């Protein structure tokens, strides 16, 4: 089994949307992903497992900071360590781009994601009340200092 990473391009949109819609209660739109892929200040990294898209992460850059607004692993690939590997690869790439601090929000109830972020050294810096919809839920705001 092989795991590789690459930047998304427009031809990847349909599969990204398929994963997003199956995984997220309030999925991003096609236009939002196109904007991230085509932007000079954002990128989408794909996790390719045996040649199949297993997940992706979206980053917005305002060097020396970056934001991780969306990271998703397709349900059939969860539990294989792909999310951890994708986040690790992404952090290395962000560091090489001059990023020193990474921010994200995560649903308060998303314990597996929160635990993953904490193992990387992310720290809670705040709460955004009623941030998520469908269902309405608070977001835990987290940050990570690159070393």
Short description:
With 147 residues, the protein is an alpha+beta fold. It is 31% helix and 40% strand. The protein has a single domain (3-145), classed as 3-Layer(aba) Sandwich (Aminopeptidase).
Radius of gyration: 15 Å
What distance lies between the first and last C-alpha atoms, to the nearest angstrom?
30 Å
Give the name of the CATH superfamily: Gcn5-related N-acetyltransferase (GNAT)
Return the average pLDDT rounded to an integer. 96
At the fold tier of CATH, the topology name is: Aminopeptidase
Characterize the main sheet. Answer: 7 strands, mixed
Q: How many E strands?
A: 7
Find the structural class using helix and strand composition: alpha+beta
The number of helical runs is 4
- Overall morphology: globular
Strand order of the largest sheet: 1-2-3-4-5-7-6
Indicate the CATH class. Alpha Beta
* SSE string: EHHEEEHEHEE
Strand share of the residues? 35-45%
Provide the low-confidence segments as ranges. Answer: none
Report the CATH architecture: 3-Layer(aba) Sandwich
Number of domains: 1
The proportion of residues forming helix, as a percent range, comes to: 25-40%
Structure description:
The chain has a single domain (3-145), classed as 3-Layer(aba) Sandwich (Aminopeptidase). The chain has helices at residues 13-23, 30-38, 82-96, 111-120; strands at residues 3-7, 42-49, 52-62, 65-73, 101-107, 123-132, 137-145. With 147 residues, it is α+β, with helices and mostly antiparallel strands. A seven-stranded mixed β-sheet has the order 1-2-3-4-5-7-6, with helices on both faces. The chain is 31% helix and 40% strand.
């Amino acid at each position: 089994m092989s795991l590789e990473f690459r930047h998304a391009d427009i031809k990847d949109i349909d599969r990204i949307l398929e994963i997003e819609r199956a995984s997220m209660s309030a999925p991003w739109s096609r236009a939002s992903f196109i904007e991230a892929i085509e932007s000079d200040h954002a990128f989408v990294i794909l996790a390719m497992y045996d040649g199949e898209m297993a997940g992706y992460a979206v980053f917005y850059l305002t060097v020396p900071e970056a934001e991780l607004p969306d990271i998703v692993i397709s349900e059939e690939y969860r539990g294989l360590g792909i999310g951890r590997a994708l986040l690790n690869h992404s952090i290395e790439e962000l560091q090489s781009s001059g990023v020193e601090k990474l921010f994200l929000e995560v649903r308060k109830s998303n314990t597996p994601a929160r635990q993953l972020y904490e193992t990387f050294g992310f720290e809670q810096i705040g709460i955004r009340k009623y941030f998520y919809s469908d269902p309405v839920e608070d977001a835990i705001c987290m940050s990570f200092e690159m070393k």
